[in-house]
Amino acid sequence: MLLEVSGLNLWYGEKQVLRGVNLYVNKGEVLCLVGESGSGKTSILYSIVGLLPEGARLEGSIRFLGRELLGLSEKEYRKLRGRHISLVFQEPSVYLDPLFKVGSQVEEAYRAHYRGGMAKDIAIQALKKAGIQDAERIYNSYPHHLSGGLKQRVCIAIATVCNPELVLADEPTTALDVSLQSRILKLFRDMKGEGRSVLLVTHDFGVVAEVADRVMVLKDGQVVEEGYTTDIFDNPRHPYTQELLRAI
Ligand SMILES: Nc1ncnc2c1ncn2[C@@H]1O[C@H](COP(=O)(O)OP(=O)(O)OP(=O)(O)O)[C@@H](O)[C@H]1O
Ligand SMILES: [Mg+2]
Fold first, then answer.
1. Does pTM top 0.70 for this prediction?
2. Residue 121 has pLDDT above 90, yes or no
C-alpha cells in the first residue's frame, strides 16, 4: 500500500473539520475524493503533505510507503514534497510566483531534488506532458501572461516534473475545456501504467468515470460512501452521491 490514512481528526481552532477519516491509495491507482464545498477535501490533501495553516491541530496516522508522516519536521516534509508526494493546488494563481518565468519555476521544482544539468529539457518535457504544445514559448513566459487553464497545466508540470509516486490534485481540471481536461486525465492514467498513483479531488462525476479506480464521498469531514467506481455508479447509496450522479 502506498498511502494509508487512518483516524484522521483535524481542528481549525475550535472547529472540527475532519472526523475519523480513513483512506488508502494503492500503487498504480487513482482514488477520487468528491464532496460538497467545505466538506474537507483540501484539508485532507494539506494534512498529507504537511501544509496545514498555523493553528490547525491534526490527530491520527498518515503512513506513506510504511513511514509515519505525522510529526515530521518541515525539513523532512521538504524532502518528501515534490519528489515523492506532490500537490497540485486548487488555486494555481496563488501558487505561481509572478516574479519568475514559468520555465524557471518548473526547473526549480526539479532542482530542489536533483542536480540540474538536464533541468531545462526535463522542464520542457514536463510542460509538454501536461498538455502544453508550445512549451518553449510558455517556458519563457511570466505567469500573468497565461490564461487560467495554462497556469493550471503549468502547476501540473511542476507537480509531475520529479515523477513522484503520488500526486495529490485538487480540482486540477476545472479551468480546462473538455479536450484539455481529457488530456490531463490521460496523463493521470499514464501515471498508473508506470505504477504511480493519484489522489484526485473533483466535483465532477464525469471526471470520476474517466479516471477513478475507486471513489470516496466526503460530507462534513466524514467519509459517507466509498467503493469501486463501477459499484458507486451502479448503486449509489448516499443521497449526496445520488445527487452528484444525477448532475451528469
Ligand atoms: N485556514 C483555515 N482556518 C479555518 N477554517 C478553515 C481553514 N481552511 C478551511 N477551513 C474550513 O474547514 C472546512 C473544510 O475546508 P476545505 O477547504 O478542506 O473544504 P473543501 O472540501 O476543499 O471545499 P471546496 O470544495 O470549497 O474547496 C470548511 O468549513 C472551511 O471553512
Ligand atoms: Mg478545496
1. yes
2. yes
